[in-house]
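Chapter summary example.
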Amino acid sequence: MNGYFSSYLVVVVLFGLGLAIVAGGLLVNRLLRPHRPTPEKLLTYECGVDPVGEGWAQSQVRYYVFTYLYVVFAVDAVFLFPWATVFASPGFGATTLIEMFVFLVFIAIGILYAWRKRVLTWT
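The structure predicted for these 123 residues follows.
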């Protein structure tokens, strides 16, 4: 049992060492940086445009829907790479092919649903 916990001790020591390096770097940066605040430096930065008006702005929900759809289909595309490696292995051909077609049918249903709900139109 002693050898079992010693492996965790190595992980804890390495984690502490990494934490000390990061904290030391941040501390040295704070000590060495110049600190001369001016009113211009304390203004909110908005992509090079001077801040005007209130801080509240209304945004369209469709942008978030496009982002959500992109993330969903990007994650789905990530599953294609392991499938391709397993498909090349002997004895897994037909089973993996059927599983991939089931997976692609689910993706197609999702795209069809988004298309029918007019989510994919950019107006």
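To summarize the output: The radius of gyration is 26 Å.
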